[in-house]
Delta-aminolevulinic acid dehydratase (Plasmodium reichenowi), 451 residues
Amino acid sequence: MLKSDGVLLLYILIINLICCLNGNSKKRAYILNTPKSSNCKRSSFRRWNNPVNNNNSQILSNNEGSIEDVYNKKISGGSNIKNFSKDINNNIYIETNRRERRIKRNKYLLSLYNNTNIKTSNFIYPLFIHEEDVEKKHTQLEGIYTYNLDGIIKEIEECIKLNIHHFMFFPVIREESKTVYCEESYNENSYFCKTISRIKEKFSDDIIVYADVALDPYNIYGHDGIYDDKKKEILNDITVHTLVKQSLCLAKSGADVVCPSDSMDKRIELIRKNLDFHNFRDILILSYTCKYSSSMYKPFRSILNSNILKNFVKNKQSYQHDFNSYMDLNNVDKHIIEGADIIMVKPSMFYLDIIHKIKNRIKDDVQIPIAVYNVSGEYMMIKNYVKYLNEDINYENEIITELFKSYLRAGANIIITYFAKQYGLYMKKLYDKDIIIDDNSNNNFNIELTL
């Protein structure tokens, strides 16, 4: 009898050892329960996955919230572990500006890493939201409109059919809502924020919502920051304080990506830290890392009614970058460290060298997409050039192809462009075939154009 018990004991020990080494959750491991006598009727082992013997299973079966909520309420308190922080809800989190998994949480975000072909899935389409009853209104940019909620939903639906899933939204604010301190920028009940919420509710994860973070649409002076009329300067720190409030407001409204375009010092780090503290750790930051003080923005400012007219600081050179030097390339390393998930160069056509230098500057172990903004002035240049061409030699889409290829050669992954929908329609017409949409693939329309 003793010999048979010894064999059984050895057998059980071997089974436990094999299960532990394999680490296979599908195999059942056993724990010994030595009986007081060989005549005991109770089983000589019990299974780990028995809820009666597993306190964690009891905790998780109480339906008291998410796994994370239960962990913070029931489990984390008994651990004396260093270097974790507590957020606004008193939940633990890792206080770090860099999270590689942020951009991996959605297949459309993950596709931004690929820059081998021209793809509509790597376009970000800028759209303007107005507060009027009319669905869409013309702007001075040919083919570009401002939309109310109904109009913008129709536009997004048409774009999704072209495999365009990234949309950057800008508000067209009524003049009476503009103030010195730009309070409307963080008003959760504003038309812009409510529209963002409705858009995200309707399309969910089928689109990525990018929301502009800057004060120029809300500012009576038209500047990206709060302007002190007595000092005749833009106040950096209180502007950043306001931008943090704006970012939190947009995150609450449903934005997937906040896009600080203001060029103030330290805004990336402070936005990142406050998003994390308020439990928006999955929200990405697209940083206007190299935004140059350019003459190519005028049509855009006219759409937003944010032209600088009323003050003595007539331009934005005190905070936007100087195109005479490479000094501001230092922002690349700084913004990556501060927590930017995507970095951007704006404008595009005259700054391909900047894109190339950034691509070479980024360390091999840092995976971060580079966006380029094909701005309103560049859009208008191409449109006006095409008007002077004979209809028989109208190469507009071929010109756009050539432009986009130059971005990719320079090192960009993402193209922010007003041509997004037009070019998507062109690609569909060019290949003239039905496209089977595969939810598990990012390769729809991923066709290399050789024209």
